[in-house]
Amino acid sequence: MRWRNIWRKLVNYVMFSLTGICALITVGVLFFILGYLIWHGGSALSWTFLTHLPTPVGETGGGMANAIVGSAKLLLLASLVGVPIGFLGGVYLAEFGGQAFCAVVRYTADLLNGVPSIVMGIFAFTVVVLPMKHFSTLAGSLALGVMMIPIAVRSTEEALRTVPMMLREGALALQMEDHRHGGCSGGA
User: Mind listing the pLDDT tens digit for each residue in 113-169?
Assistant: First the structure.
């Protein structure tokens, strides 16, 4: 039995060492790539690069202004779609969490959270691109906004459930309106 324990400890030590060496090699390669990008790409970063429009193919210079503005528009529109719906859904779940409909909303949010992004893209393509007959920021924003909804619902619900009931009752005792303190209807 003693040799078996020695053998197991030896195999454990060898495998742990091999795992550490493989992790070190992998992280070393990643840091090499990151250093290469910073060393060679850092010189290209400037305000001109960030604020100018792209140039035609084959010409030198140009910038990324279109990409930065487009990303900002996409995130803004997606937030306008996803955050209000998610916030209101989370408030509803936190305040009326014991009802049967809340279980359906929670289940739907969890189900929507597990849908792959490619399926969301196909949904946006079907709903926005096909009727309009051209691609737009609205299609991407709709897909991203729908992906934001379940995260906002669950985050808001959990944040509101952390408010102690004594604090809510104290707000009622101070005659604060129901909508100012988050309600006291019993979800938390």
Answer: 999 999 999 999 999 999 998 888 899 999 999 999 999 999 999 998 888 888 878
Both tokens of 135, joined, read: 């691609």
Q: Which amino acid is at 149?
A: I
pTM: 0.69
At a CB cut-off of 8 Å and minimum separation 6, what does 153 contact? 86, 89, 90, 93, 105, 109
- DSSP letter for each residue of 12-72: HHHHHHHHHHHHHHHHHHHHHHHHHHHHHHGGG-SHHHHHSPPPPTT-S----HHHHHHHH
104 — phi, psi (to 5°)? -65, -40
The dihedral through the CA atoms of 44, 48, 49, 50 has a sign that is positive
**Smallest Cα–Cα separation from 148: which of 66, 73, 89, 70?**
89
Residue 172 identity? L
C-alpha torsion 158→156→164→103, nearest 10: -60
Amino acid found at 72: A
Spatial separation of the C-alpha atoms in residues 7 and 34, rounded to whole Å = 40
- How do the domains of the chain map onto residue ranges? 2-45, 65-181
